[in-house]
């Protein structure tokens, strides 16, 4: 652990909320559940929780990057805020006006101000229409007659996005992917919108064309004073273009912060894992490549997302509270909002909860030791910082709990290390114990095992959080009573892939 890492915590991140721009778009509690229907009568049997209650705002002139794994709801969110899709719940305000339920005619004037660049440049352009017709369509739909006529304006737009104005009469199939993406951008810019939502604007392009399109969007923003919401999964692109970044996981926003804070001191473990995958251009930190955090398992199904914190099935820091209580998106630093009980680079929000879930122990095996140490040190350092600030403000009251938070962090890292060492030396011991319990008790009720283990760990570790002792007591304690309790808590819905895999073991 070098000192350099400890210094990476910006004491006061630049507050995006203090940025000059007015709030252009405000989203509150936004949800989109896609119903799943079955049978002759097409009865609803469930729903895909594609977007499940998100809150954020976009300020005029800024670029908000939205990142997250495939299927986490980014495109759905983009379609909702441009009102191409109807939300299940929540509100969308544009320039202070509620546009959540505006109909086609109500939305017509707004369409001029809010435009979208679609994810797929191949399917988003009508193959039967010429480029001139496609880019000129917004003028015709809005009844706008640009100075000099539509054709002249379309040709001007073509040259703005770096295409030959003489290609006005060509069809989409006569263009490359990069050129089509430019056509999509030209169409979105035709009516000089205020907000452009660009869904993966460069992901279908090769690297050199990506750079051209990104630079083009940058230039256009400066020239036309555009506001962007750029959805992407390429973190290098997002870092380059964004002022602020929102991180989504399974339909929720888990962290939102300005670019510097997010890349230098991410607070949500999922953000930290995503950031660890970004190549570091600094030659001095090339060794940091080995610190990449691998996430355990796949993203759970959005049909039945995990309880509490949705990331708890893959998080190496998850404790019981993560499984039972959903963390709220709180502003822990100015401009940095995070939904996590045990954030990185910050004082623990639930220091009393110290016993890791079984899934967390398994997940931590994929996390390099250096990362765990760094996590404990940076969080302890911030906790001390917070303690100092609090002590000056409120002399005595808060001090003890922060010290406890520091101790807890160190305990957790120690516990994770012990786990890892034990697993390396005698990999099968814990597994054998677990299997015994499963065979005797859980043969008929397999889904109770994991919950039962967690229960036992929780009870025992309240007195002695040592991982070795907890492992020893697992086999003795996971009796009928606990399995019954676990059975009672068993959710009625389908289990996530990760939990199923754990049970299968
Ligand atoms: N029209 C629809 N009907 C049912 N489910 C849908 C529909 N559109 C999206 N979904 C589901 O909603 C979830 C989110 O999809 P979305 O396209 O928003 O993800 P994404 O984050 O944009 O992914 P990617 O990075 O792969 O583009 C997925 O599980 C998807 O299967
Ligand atoms: S520590 Fe808990 S709340 Fe935070 S991301 Fe992990 S599982 Fe979620
Ligand atoms: Mg998408």
UniProtKB/TrEMBL annotation:
Listed GO MF terms: ATP binding; ATP hydrolysis activity
Q: Which stretches are tagged as biased composition: Basic and acidic residues?
A: 391-425, 431-444, 452-463, 471-505
Task: Read off the InterPro entries from this record.
Answer: AAA+_ATPase (IPR003593), ABC_transp_ATP-bind (IPR050319), ABC_transporter-like_ATP-bd (IPR003439), ABC_transporter-like_CS (IPR017871), Oligopep_ABC_C (IPR013563), P-loop_NTPase (IPR027417)
The record's region (Disordered) falls at: 387-505
Repressor as a keyword? no
- Tell me yes or no: is Translocase among this UniProt entry's keywords: no
Task: Give one GO biological process term.
Answer: peptide transport
**Which residue range or ranges hold the ABC transporter domain?**
25-275
Q: What family does this chain come from, according to its entry?
A: Belongs to the ABC transporter superfamily.
Cite the NCBIfam families for this sequence: oligo_HPY (TIGR01727), PRK11308.1 (NF008453)
Please give the name of this protein: Dipeptide ABC transporter ATP-binding protein
């Amino acid at each position: 652990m070098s000192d350099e890492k400890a210094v990476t915590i910006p004491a006061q991140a630049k507050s995006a909320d203090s940025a000059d721009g007015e709030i252009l778009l405000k989203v509150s509690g936004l949800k989109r559940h896609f119903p799943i229907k079955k049978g002759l009568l097409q009865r609803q049997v469930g729903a895909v929780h594609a977007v499940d209650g998100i809150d954020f705002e976009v300020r005029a002139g800024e670029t908000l990057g939205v990142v997250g794994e495939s299927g986490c709801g980014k495109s759905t969110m983009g379609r909702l805020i441009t009102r191409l899709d109807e939300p299940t719940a929540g509100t969308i305000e544009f320039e202070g006006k509620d546009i959540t339920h505006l109909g086609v005619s109500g939305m017509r004037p707004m369409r001029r101000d809010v435009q979208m660049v679609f994810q797929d440049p191949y399917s988003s352009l009508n193959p039967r229409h010429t480029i001139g017709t496609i880019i000129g369509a917004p003028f015709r739909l809005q009844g706008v007659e640009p100075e000099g006529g539509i054709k002249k304006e379309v040709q001007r737009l073509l040259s703005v996005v770096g295409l030959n104005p003489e290609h006005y009469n060509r069809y989409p199939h006569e263009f490359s992917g990069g050129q089509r993406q430019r056509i999509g951008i030209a169409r979105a810019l035709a009516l000089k919108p205020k907000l452009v939502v660009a869904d993966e604007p460069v992901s279908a392009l090769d690297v050199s064309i990506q750079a051209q399109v990104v630079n083009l969007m940058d230039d256009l923003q400066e020239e036309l004073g555009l506001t962007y919401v750029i959805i992407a999964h390429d973190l290098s692109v997002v870092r380059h273009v964004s002022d602020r970044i929102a991180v989504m996981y399974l339909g929720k926003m888990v962290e939102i912060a300005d670019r510097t804070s997010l890349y230098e001191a991410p607070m949500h473990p999922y953000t930290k894992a995503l950031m660890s995958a970004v190549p570091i251009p600094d030659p001095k930190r090339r060794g940091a490549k080995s610190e990449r955090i691998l996430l355990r398992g796949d993203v759970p199904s959005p049909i039945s997302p995990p309880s509490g914190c949705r990331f708890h099935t893959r998080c190496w820091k998850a404790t019981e509270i993560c499984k039972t209580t959903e963390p709220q998106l709180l502003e822990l630093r100015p401009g940095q909002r995070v939904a996590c009980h045990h954030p990185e680079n910050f004082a623990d929000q639930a220091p009393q909860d110290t016993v890791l879930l079984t899934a967390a122990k398994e997940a931590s095996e994929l996390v390099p030791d250096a990362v765990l140490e760094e996590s404990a040190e940076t969080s302890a350092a911030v906790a001390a910082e917070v303690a100092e600030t609090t002590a000056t403000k409120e002399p005595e009251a808060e001090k003890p709990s922060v010290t406890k938070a520091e101790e807890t962090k160190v305990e957790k890292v120690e516990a994770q290390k012990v786990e890892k060492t034990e697993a390396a030396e005698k990999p099968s011991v814990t597994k054998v114990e677990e299997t015994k319990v499963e065979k005797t008790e859980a043969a008929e009720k397999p889904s109770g095992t994991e919950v039962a283990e967690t229960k036992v760990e929780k009870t025992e570790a309240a007195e002695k959080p040592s991982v070795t002792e907890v492992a020893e007591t697992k086999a003795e304690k996971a009796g009928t009573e606990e399995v019954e309790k676990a059975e009672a808590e068993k959710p009625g819905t389908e289990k996530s892939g990760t939990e199923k895999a754990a049970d299968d073991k």
